[in-house]
Amino acid sequence: MAFITIGERGRIGRHSLAVRVGLGEGAVRTVLKRLREEGLADADASGCHLTRGGQAVYSMLARRLSALEEIEGSRLTMGSAQVAICVRSGGGKVRSGIEQRDSAIGVGAAGATTYVVRDSRFTIPGGSDDCERDFPSRVWVALKRRLKPMDGDAVVLCGSGEGETARLGALSAALSLL
Questions:
Q1: Distances from the Cα of 53 to the Cαs of 30, 31, 41, 57, 118, in angstroms?
Q2: Which of 1, 48, 119, 154 has its CA 20 to 30 A from that of 35?
Q3: Helix (H) or strand (E) segment spanning residue 105
Q4: Second-level CATH architecture of 2-63
């Protein structure tokens, strides 16, 4: 989350970064140290910023991942706060969706459901070949409008009791498909 936040902002102060990603300043220092060690980010008096290598990785992520979208009123996954993300061309890497669920739970989310878009329909591997038909909900319209998924994309809907944990879970699940 810190890496993506730095990429979105271009340059951001350590305190602002801590607030935006929901971490303490000590944890942000540790994250920045790791990003520095990997050659992805650096920090100076003007704030945290991505290196050239970090910018290349961020550009790839920006091409492959949609923005994280808060979804209201869904009963399609667990948790009162739900966030969706689309992984462009990620559908081919989805086996059962359990791997994405486990990745989301590993960072504290309550659960996650992964859909693969085939023939302009949301499908569940090993399950429904038309989720809109089998699980009627207005959420499908919101997912289509906000994520704009195409055939071959994967859509992860992650839930938690807290919005920030749902965001982190959705991102973690999505990264498992890259």
A1: 19, 17, 8, 6, 34
A2: 154
A3: helix 98-106
A4: Orthogonal Bundle (1.10)
pLDDT at 28: 93
Q: Are residues 48 and 32 in contact, defined by beta-carbon separation less than 8 angstroms?
A: yes
Question: With pLDDT > 90 as the criterion, what percentage of the chain qualifies?
Answer: 93
Q: Report which of 163, 121, 160 is spatially closest to residue 144, judged by C-alpha positions.
A: 121
- pLDDT tens track for 15-73: 999 999 888 989 999 999 999 999 999 999 999 999 999 999 999 999 999 999 999 87
- CATH class belonging to 65-175: alpha beta
The whole model's pTM is what?
0.91
Stretch (H or E) spanning 146: helix 139-147
Spans of all domains in the chain: 2-63, 65-175
Report the distance separating Cα 171 and Cα 173, nearest Å. Answer: 5
- The per-residue pLDDT for 84 is 98
